[in-house]
Amino acid sequence: MLYKNRNVQLFLLSVLLLPILSSCWDSQEIDERANVLAIGIDVADKQEEKSEDEIAHLRDFSITNNEIFKLTAQIAIPGRIPLGPEQTGGKEKPVLVVQVVGHTIEDAIINLQQEVANELFLGHLRIIVLNEKVAKQGTQRFNDFLRRNPEIRRTASLVVSKESAATYLKVSPELERIPSLYLADMVDNLTALGKFPPSFIGLFWTILSSKGQDAYLPYFRLKKGDNLELNGLAYFKGDKMVGKTNPADIGIFMSVKGIHRGGYGAFVKVPGTNEVVVVKAMSRRTKIKVSLKDGKPHASIKISYESTIDEKGNPKLLVSNSSLLKKVEKQASKDVVASTKKFIKRTQRVKSDVFGFGEHFRAKLPHFWNKKIGTKEKWEDYYQQLTFDLQVETHIHRVGMKAK
Amino acid sequence: MGDPKEITTLQATTIIISTIIGVGVLPLPLFAVRAGETGAPLVTLLGILLAATGLFILTYLGMRHPQKTIITYSHDIIGKWLGRFCSIFVIVFFYILTGLAAREFGEVVVSAVLRETPLEVTVLVMLLLACISCRNNINVFSYIHNFYVPIILAPGLIIVAFSLKNSNLLYLRPIIGNNFQDMAAGTLTISALFQGAFIITLIIPSMKKPAKALKASFWGIFVSGGLYLLIVIATVSVFGSEEIKQIFWPTLELARTTSLPGNILQRLDVIFLAVWVTAVFTTLFSSYYLTIHSIKELCNLKDHKMLTYFILPFVFIFAMLPQNIVQMYKVIQDIGRAGLVITFLYPGLLLLIDVFKGWRKKRSVVQKS
């Protein structure tokens, strides 16, 4: 028999091994990959517009409604990214910053690839910085590429910057060697600290798609010495940014939105005196009930806070009696009601339902929703007429380790 | 039929579970949401109930003929030629189902994971795997299924559990959807995802206690249907119905959004895809096995092994027919719904005739005595 021959057997065996040993079709060495860690998007000026070469399209090819923008990418340099605990020493910059222009993200990425020798890999993209001006022009044109590309993580962060996004990718913060990782960790940690509601690109898309709410993003600002500050909350109408709050209002936003974890402290005047104490929210519970009043949408919001007293302004003031605490609780609630009202009214003026009241109407009053509303645009009109009442309760259970 | 009768009730249950859970998990929430928007869980539940009814009919039929499969007992019920004619449809349907499942698998792999690998390679490798495994007898078949079930179920449940921290219950309301006509059509699409359960007809003749087949079917559809329902609830509550409409494979996206606490894994799609490949394999394995076994029985052959490689090129060619992913999903939906005639109506009709015949026979026996 032929296959009793030892050589033939060996040959057949090696043929069998061939597909197993040939490894992965898609294999790519890690040091031959250009890992994009962060992307910044700015509006491009006329001068930069001309610098685009004819790569994805010829110059006279008109791309309607897509204004040209500037994309800054931070690419990790292989071998210079410190792994594990921070190693001291090593002055070399671990990242390369490249700038290109394009009409869409894919256009810009194609232009970028033309300048970088290794294949671009977006799987490690942690953060996308949008300049305020770009955010105001609309974000929808970026989303398509990001959704379609399987490498992009849904958990990447999206932030809005006051200064040009390019500067954010060039700063070198002291706490972390890789600027983009610092920025990305900052967004994640601020959420864990209760300084900002959960925010990542997947959530942004989800809110953008749903009919009864508008999206929000963290708004950053550059401080002295390459430091960044969470400077507020950017709120959107549809895909366009329409305004930003001050940082203190983020706490208010989180309480209406019903985010359990508290983190903001605020000065509260003790009634009857001139003294102040700092009351910090520990946790909160929010209940929103919606109804129709004469055919108009109405929301009743009930917020109850669990707070602590963190500090008092004057040593003479004694917070050791219960009745004083009650007064502080009342005053704190009053303050919250006032600023919440102001905040909601402000978003109503620009038709931006960041709180997601519309979702409550869609979910709880489907008959009204289907008949009268049905689309996001319609709801935005209705949101302007939304009336609401507010009830805030504060409970101070803890005052820290000091007896007086 | 020369095989020893060794399949236990538990094994039968696991075969049904791992056969049902397959490629369908990925687009399942999309199908459900397209039909029912926020009523997607309800649509899914109705789909499961419809599929369960079909499965119970088939199981009951099998229990009345514990030595035979649908190919052979259809001869007894509606006559030799008509039975053969209908059996051809059953075979062709499962042949198509095998091809489409392989194609859908390849399509996901090519667009989400291995983007450089040609579609043909992924599809062919998967089909070869199923094909080689099909050369075993039915007992080995049941061992393979039994072995993989825990691996298939556990990660699905883990992803659902950890994704709940991102969920928003408002997205699930109103529970009753808005458009009832779409919901009815969606129910059919969803129940078409359970067609793999047809494999029970092949298992019953090899079961130790065919009388317990109904119990196996019940638990099989309960577990797999339960997992499907949980996945739909989880994806809808995390993404909302509007966002799901934008994504081809919401379940995969759910795995990508979900992270294990403590940054152990920042995205779960890696585990999920590894498991999902196994789930697809078991599904393909079953439908492939069903196809060749039915051909064997139709042609009165002694052995099915020779057929395995013979069928392979045909399945592969069929898998390559759809031009693109959009066309493929159109074909899958249409064939799936049409297939309900074979997996639901046909057994139902057989059962009716069978019961009627039995009743008449009993009456004539009574009259004679």
Q: What is the number of beta strands of chain A?
A: 13
Which parts of chain A are unreliable, with pLDDT below 50 for 5 consecutive residues or more? none
Q: List how many beta strands of chain B DSSP finds.
A: 0
- β content of chain A, as a range? 25-35%
Number of helices of chain A: 13
Number of domains of chain B: 1
Global outline of chain B = globular
CATH class of chain B: Mainly Alpha
* Distance between the amino and carboxyl termini of chain B: 36 Å
In N-to-C order, the SSE pattern of chain B is HHHHHHHHHHHHHH
Return the CATH architecture of chain B: Up-down Bundle
Topology of chain A as a string of helices (H) and strands (E): HEHEEHEEHHEHHHEEEHEEEHHHHE
Structure commentary:
The complex is a heterodimer of chains A (404) and B (369). Chain A is α/β, with parallel strands linked by helices and 404 residues long. Helix content of chain A is 34%, strand content 29%. In chain A, α11 (357-364) packs across α12. The longest helix of chain A has 28 residues, at 322-349. Chain A is globular, with a radius of gyration of 27 Å. With 369 residues, chain B is mainly α. Chain B has one domain (9-358): Amino acid/polyamine transporter I. Chain B has helices spanning 9-20, 28-36, 40-64, 70-78, 80-113, 119-133, 138-163, 180-192, 200-203, 213-244, 250-257, 269-298, 305-320, 325-368. The mean pLDDT of chain B is 88. The chains are: A alpha/beta (404), B mainly alpha (369). Chains A and B meet through α8 and α11 of A and α5, α10 and α11 of B.
